[in-house]
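B., you asked whether I could sanity-check this one before it goes into the benchmark set. Here's the sequence:
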Amino acid sequence: MIIDTHLHIVDQAALRYPWLSGAPALNRDFSYEEYASEARRGGIAQTLHMEVDVAPEDIEAETAYVARKAREPGSLLRGAIAACRPEDPGFAEYLERVRETTFVKGFRRVLHVVPDDVSEGALFRENIQRLKGTGLTFDLCVLPHQIPKAIALVDLAPDVQFVLDHCGVPDIKGNAEHPWREHMGEIAKRPNIVGKISGVVAYADPENWTVETLRPYLEHTIGVFGWDRVVWGSDWPVCTLGGGLSTWLAATQALVAGASTEERTKLFSGNARRVWGL
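And here's what the prediction gave me:
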């Protein structure tokens, strides 16, 4: 079975997504039902919803929306990684509200859309440390040159479980492995972070990429983190920019075909079960 740790649902009638106006290729609704039909055909049995950077006022409404979808008969949804604003004074109260439900499994604050110094603020760092003992994870979504900023957060909170999204967002189209390669090796030395093998087809040339185009990036990520600290995610619908869910799933399976059954199971489901208690 496969656990998808990175699904986005977009419903513009229910929630506001300010960033979509600048992303015309993604500026439409992407429903759970559309995803689930394709996901089931690919062998995906469970999924976690990943926040979609909704308007700040809609953050808790997004989680409630996804929770309702999860309660529908036969739903693949098993939890949510919720949006958060650790730089805001209200984070502590928000955290307490979230802890009242077991549906939220972690948080994410996309850091490559804000100034680099946001994650360096005293309040931001204090609030990240509040996650200690909660069992909630924190996803890091950064560009390669920002990985040292992510390392600083991981070192600051050694008792918090972090997740590095999208193999560290390498510039595959530009064939740029440096400084991404070195930074990935450094961040992976921290035991409290796992690497997410998710949707990197979106960073390749949409017309010309092949499995071999992706190989250096996936193999390096798995190599530095090891099979016990990698999880798989679709990043649907962003992965549609590079071919779609089925294409990305097939590419991943081709790239790990030489791994053992135990190793593939860890990547596709076992590690996710452990990290998020699924």
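One thing to flag: The first strand starts at residue 2 and ends at 7. Otherwise nothing jumped out at me.
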